[in-house]
Amino acid sequence: MTKMKAISSEELAKLSVDYLADAKARVVRNALTVNDLGGISRVFDATAANPDYFSINIKTLPVTNQMASGRCWLFASLNVLREIIVKKYKIDGQFELSQNYMAFYDKLEKANFFLEAALAELETPFEDETVRYLMQTAVGDGGQWDMFVSLVKKYGICPKTAMPETYQSSHTRAMNGLLNKRLRKFAADAKRMHAEGAKLTAIRKEKDKALKEVYSLICSCFGVPPQKFTFEFYDKKGEYHAFRDVTPQEFYEKYLNVDLDDYVGIINGPTKDKPFHKMYTVKYLGNVVDGNPISFL
Question: Taking the domain 72-262, which CATH number applies?
C-alpha cells in the first residue's frame, strides 16, 4: 500500500508561486469572485454549434417545475399519466396532475416505512451498517417507479387544481429536517425502551404517537388531501366538461384506467455483481409497507 503524503510547506509555496505567476489565473479569479461559475464557464460559440434540433422529436406537453425539491421521479411519472389523460379527453390548455397530492402520501408512507423498519431492527445496534443506512437516509424526496405505482394504487391521483403546490411542497429541505429529527428520535427511544424491557405494544404506542405528529406536520406544510374533487376542463372544441364528486381512486381507475404493473424500472449498474437480464432490489428501499416491492431490471 502506498504511504499517504501530507502537503509540505515547500509544496504549498510552489503551488502559490505557480498560481500567482499565471496571468490567465488572475483574469479567471477576478471574474469568478463576483460572478456565477455557471455563467462564466459558458461557451458562447457552443450554443450556435449545438442547436436543439433532433432527427426524432417526440411532442409532449409543457415541462413541469419541481422547484427546490427532489421530486423529479414523481413529476416524471405523473407526466406520463398526464399525457394519456389529455389525449383521452382532448383537453385544451395547461393541465397537470397534483404532484403535491402524491408527495403528501409519499412522505406519510415513507415515515411509516421508517418507523416500522426501526421496530424491525430493535435488537440491531446503531453501529450496524443497515441501521446506519436507515438513520442516515431516513425520509427524503427521492423515489423509484415501484414506489410511485404503490402510491397510485393505494391513494389514486387528482388534478393539480384539487391540491396545488404550497411553499413547503416546493421547498422541502426545512420540512425534511424537522421530519427526520422526529423519526430518528423515535428510533432512539424505541431502542432505549426495548433495552429497558418494554413490551412491543408499549413501543408501538410511541410509534403511533410519532406517526400522528408526522401527519400533522405534513398537513401543515402540504395541506389536507382532498377526498373528492371536480374534474373540469375545456376540450379542443372549447366545450366545458365537469365530472363532480370524483375521488382520487376513482379518477385513477375510471378516468385513467392504465395498469401500471405493466411497466418496470430499468437500471444500468455496470459492476461485476450486477450482470444484465436479472432483477435486483435494495433492502429497506420503499414507501408503502404492503405495496409493490422495489424491483430493477
Answer: 3.90.70.10
